[in-house]
């Protein structure tokens, strides 16, 4: 299996988006770094498929990890080197297998729920156990939360500012509804000892939710904890600041409602972007994204509507800076520019995509399930139902940690053909050398040199631009010409 993974990554990794394709995948301005198939991520139980995905950056080491949910388990992958990701192992389901498994992160712990699997509860996994690992492990949960006889939940959201987890769409161990599927408030400030605070059933079933400490233009709610639930047939806005006295602020319905699936605030909390999962399938619409103005939380209004170029179904979407990153099933991963979001027409514009389902962009529930765009490096992870974990980056970007340049090392010739000589000066010596392609793939490394001069053989390298890193501190550009 290790050999297979290595060969697969060597074939499928580092594929620039060129002339509208990265290998077999249609693309625009996003390059493929690598892919790990679902057969590697999941165990062999049932029919393994991918679902939710989230990320964790280790605050101690700076390493980046993908947390990829599947029908039967949750996989952990070190993606710090996106071209050479390392599969570290998986945490198996605490009960049965099903399509819906969701995960979020708080305080270096992953919190995992699954739907329609019976007595699963919420798994808690200490992510710091991933530190220093370089090979596949078998993991177990650090805690299982089952208060209220909790069995399955459709989803989880965590307000990281308050340390409160919101479990939604929950059922008992025999799959009977809990609290009408409304949110259950769980204090996870001590991650391995979750504690229920309360629940709220009056607004009905929540399929997904986002909770923020509100900083938007409605000053009546400044710094209040605002819950926005995507509740199948409506959007529900709640003031959940006091978990024992939840206040219903407003409920929204809209024309041509299929299934209110998921939504996300813009960073200024003025707009809320909603995806309806079934309007394309049931109403014959092109991919539709609804943008609501939340300037007045008591009276939110539809500000504009964006239609994509195909009839693919939109699923999960997230905002980072001025962009909306959306997983759109058969249309793959799409990027929308929000610069003109206040305009009633042409409010958003598609500026990039990476299509993980190259066969077509038809209306069906397969392809890209979810996306996580929040890594500081620029790595973006996509979990595809059939094809597994994709790591992509915006074309032309590169982040080889902190780049330092120094006059203490020189290279000649540069551009080089067959060799280039690296010289040290200023009382320094060459201790180690690493050579990276322009997309970040390490193509050469030499350790324990302790030399004043080193001749680097470049004859086997392809024509192009490389970055050479000396002593893990100083980086210079090397051009290879043939």
Strand order of the largest sheet: 1-2-28-27-26-25
Shape: globular
Kindly provide the radius of gyration, computed on alpha-carbon positions and rounded to a whole number of angstroms: 24 Å
* Strand percentage: 35-45%
What are the low-pLDDT stretches, counting only 5+ consecutive residues below 50?
1-12, 399-405
CATH superfamily of the largest domain: YVTN repeat-like/Quinoprotein amine dehydrogenase
Mean pLDDT across every amino acid position: 92
Helical stretch count? 3
Largest sheet properties = 6 strands, antiparallel
In the CATH hierarchy, what is the class of the largest domain? Mainly Beta
CATH architectural arrangement of the largest domain: 7 Propeller
Distance between the termini: 37 Å
Word description of this protein:
The chain has 482 residues and is mainly β. The protein has two domains: 2-394, YVTN repeat-like/Quinoprotein amine dehydrogenase (Methylamine Dehydrogenase, Chain H), CATH 2.130.10; 409-480, Immunoglobulins (Immunoglobulin-like, Sandwich), CATH 2.60.40.10. The protein has three helices and 38 strands. It has a six-stranded antiparallel beta sheet with strand order 1-2-28-27-26-25, with no helix packed on it. Residues 1-12 and 399-405 have low confidence and may be disordered.
Features of the shown structure:
single chain, disordered N terminus, mainly beta, Methylamine Dehydrogenase, Chain H, 6-stranded antiparallel beta sheet, 482 residues, 38 strands, 4% helix, 3 helices, 5-stranded mixed beta sheet, Immunoglobulin-like
């Amino acid at each position: 299996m290790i050999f297979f993974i290595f060969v697969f990554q060597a074939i499928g990794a580092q594929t620039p988006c060129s002339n509208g394709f990265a290998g077999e995948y249609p693309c625009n301005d996003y390059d493929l770094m690598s892919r790990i198939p679902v057969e590697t991520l999941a165990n062999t139980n049932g029919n393994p498929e991918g679902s939710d995905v989230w990320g964790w950056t280790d605050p101690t080491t700076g390493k980046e990890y993908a947390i990829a949910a599947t029908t039967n388990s949750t996989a952990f992958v070190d993606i710090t080197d996106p071209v050479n990701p390392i599969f570290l192992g998986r945490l198996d389901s605490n009960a049965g297998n099903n399509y819906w498994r969701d995960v979020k992160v708080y305080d270096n712990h992953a919190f995992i729920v699954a739907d329609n699997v019976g007595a699963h509860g919420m798994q808690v996994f200490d992510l710091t156990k991933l530190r220093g690992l370089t090979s596949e492990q078998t993991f177990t949960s650090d805690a299982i939360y089952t208060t209220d006889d909790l069995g399955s939940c459709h989803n989880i959201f965590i307000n990281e500012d308050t340390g409160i987890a919101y479990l939604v769409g929950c059922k008992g161990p025999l799959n009977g509804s809990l609290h009408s599927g409304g949110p259950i408030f769980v204090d996870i400030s001590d991650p391995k000892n979750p504690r229920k605070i309360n629940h709220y059933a009056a607004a009905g079933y929540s399929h997904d939710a986002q909770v923020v400490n509100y900083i938007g233009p409605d000053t009546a709610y400044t710094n209040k904890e605002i819950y926005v639930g995507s509740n199948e047939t409506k959007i529900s806005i709640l003031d959940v600041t006091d978990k024992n006295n939840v206040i219903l602020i407003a409920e929204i319905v809209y024309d041509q409602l299929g299934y209110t699936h998921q939504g996300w605030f813009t960073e200024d909390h003025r707009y809320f972007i909603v995806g309806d999962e079934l309007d394309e399938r049931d109403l014959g619409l092109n991919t539709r994204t609804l943008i609501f103005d939340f300037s007045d939380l008591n009276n939110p209004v539809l500000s504009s509507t964006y239609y994509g170029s195909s009839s693919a179904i939109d699923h999960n979407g997230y905002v980072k800076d001025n962009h909306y990153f959306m997983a759109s099933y058969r249309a793959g991963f799409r990027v929308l520019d929000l610069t003109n979001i206040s305009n009633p027409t042409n409010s958003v514009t598609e500026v990039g995509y990476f299509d993980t389902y190259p066969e077509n962009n038809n209306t069906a529930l397969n392809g890209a399930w979810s996306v996580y765009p929040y890594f500081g490096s620029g790595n973006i992870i996509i979990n595809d139902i059939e094809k597994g974990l994709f790591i992509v980056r915006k074309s032309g970007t590169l982040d080889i940690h902190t780049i330092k340049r120094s006059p203490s090392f020189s290279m000649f010739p540069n551009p080089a053909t067959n060799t280039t000589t690296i010289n040290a000066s200023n009382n320094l010596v060459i201790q180690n050398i690493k050579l990276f392609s322009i997309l970040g793939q390490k193509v050469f490394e030499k350790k324990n040199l302790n030399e004043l001069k080193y001749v680097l053989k470049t004859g086997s390298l392809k024509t192009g631009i490389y970055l050479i890193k000396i002593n893990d501190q100083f980086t210079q550009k090397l051009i290879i010409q043939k």
